[in-house]
Amino acid sequence: MSDSLVIIPTYNEKENIARMIDKVMSLPLGFHLLIVDDGSPDGTADIVRGKMEEYPGRVHIKERQGKLGLGTAYIAGFRWGLEKGYDFIFEMDADFSHNPDDLARLYDACAKGAGMAVGSRYVKGGKLENWPADRVLLSYGASIYVRMITFMPVNDPTAGFVCYRREVLEAIDLDKIRFVGYAFQIEMKFAAFQLGYRIAEVPITFTDRIEGTSKMSSGIIKEAVLGVLQMRVRGFFNTYKADPPTA
What are the Glycosyltransferase 2-like domain coordinates in residue numbering (predicted)? Predict the structure, then answer.
């Protein structure tokens, strides 16, 4: 069995998912894949089930009814991966905004001792491709805002290309993660930071999606802005630390 699981949430990703699965399956580290599909009406899940037959034991699907949010999709995937015994668990987009070839570099960073490795657009060597200037400014400004409020030493706190060591996910009380949109990405990093884990940043090139429709919305942006303030205030009084398992 592989020690590494890549979680990919999907909603209407039929243009991308077959190519993405084939690409991840071709990588030398032997990654396993869990697709968490929120009832895509375009047949994404049917494509995944076909790939499960092509790659038995390596491609898996968790199907949910309705759009339940990015954060809950990942948390469902985390719980599944921990239960199955994976040591390294990844977050990655379905639309090739994240280059699957970079999975190995995130793996190496965690294998060398980081609790979390973040594929970063805003460290030396990282960059953005095919993004309009206003979106670049919004994203970079959000990163500065998050660092100012949380004091996290992370240049790209909104990044969604991440590798976690198993012990980090076990240490975080996932029931205390409040946010389901892109603020989820910030909150998971804040939880790991609050619990004392080292967060490494690995430079990547982030490419805007070519196929399909972006999931970004004004509601997601509002959640991220207000959510950072809320999680910082809660951080003064509460911890994300999970209770120790009972005997």
Answer: 6-171
Assess if residue 201 is contained within a domain. yes
Q: How many domains does the chain have?
A: 1
Q: What is the pLDDT of residues 24-64, one digit of tens each?
A: 999 999 999 999 999 999 999 999 999 999 999 999 999 99
Structure tokens at 29: 């580290």
Alpha-carbon distance 135 to 90, whole Å? 25
For residue range 6-16, list pLDDT tens digits in order: 999 999 999 99
pTM score, two decimals? 0.91
User: Nearest 10 degrees: CA dihedral of 208, 38, 90, 191?
Assistant: 100
The string of DSSP letters for 89-146 reads: EEE--SSSSS-GGGHHHHHHHHHTT-SEEEEESSSTT-EEES--HHHHHHHHHHHHHH
